[in-house]
TrEMBL record:
<dbReference type="InterPro" id="IPR011051">
    <property type="entry name" value="RmlC_Cupin_sf"/>
</dbReference>
<feature type="region of interest" description="Disordered">
    <location>
        <begin position="1"/>
        <end position="22"/>
    </location>
</feature>
<dbReference type="Pfam" id="PF07883">
    <property type="entry name" value="Cupin_2"/>
</dbReference>
<dbReference type="InterPro" id="IPR013096">
    <property type="entry name" value="Cupin_2"/>
</dbReference>
<feature type="domain" description="Cupin type-2">
    <location>
        <begin position="38"/>
        <end position="106"/>
    </location>
</feature>
<protein>
    <recommendedName>
        <fullName>Cupin type-2 domain-containing protein</fullName>
    </recommendedName>
</protein>
<dbReference type="InterPro" id="IPR014710">
    <property type="entry name" value="RmlC-like_jellyroll"/>
</dbReference>
Length: 124
């Protein structure tokens, strides 16, 4: 058996990210799904780029603030207490608009825990 209690504030932020990302996946040694906590200020994004996953399902639970997610189907404003889900093969880009009233904090879960991310160009 294995149990973990982790305070994301005690973790070092993941380097070279456009916002504050704390990887619970790494801290807990998770293998089957990815789990991250993000805090993005106005003008910051969560991912490095507009992207798509081949296999991974991804869900973002907004703890506070509002997260905007751009997709080929339009933009979704995801408010505090709401969840945005991206199925495999569904391009998306999550960010906090520059004119937002404050930061957004979100918990993201992705499964399976695979490195299947590919850039997506909405112009193509």
């Amino acid at each position: 058996m294995g149990y973990h209690t982790i305070d994301p504030a005690d973790l070092e932020p993941t380097p070279d990210r456009p916002c504050d990302q704390r990887s619970i996946t790494d801290a807990a040694g998770l293998e089957n799904f990815a789990l991250n906590v993000y805090t993005a200020d106005p003008g910051e994004s969560i991912p490095l780029a507009y992207h798509v996953h081949d296999e991974q399902e991804e869900a973002f639970y907004v703890v506070s603030g509002t997260l905007t997610v751009e997709t080929p189907d339009g933009e979704f404003d995801v408010d505090e207490g709401e969840i945005f889900v991206a199925e495999p093969q569904s391009p998306h880009f999550a960010f906090v608009p520059e004119d937002a009233h404050g930061p957004a904090k979100a918990v993201a879960v992705g499964a399976p825990n695979v490195d299947d991310v590919a850039p997506y160009d909405p112009e193509e």
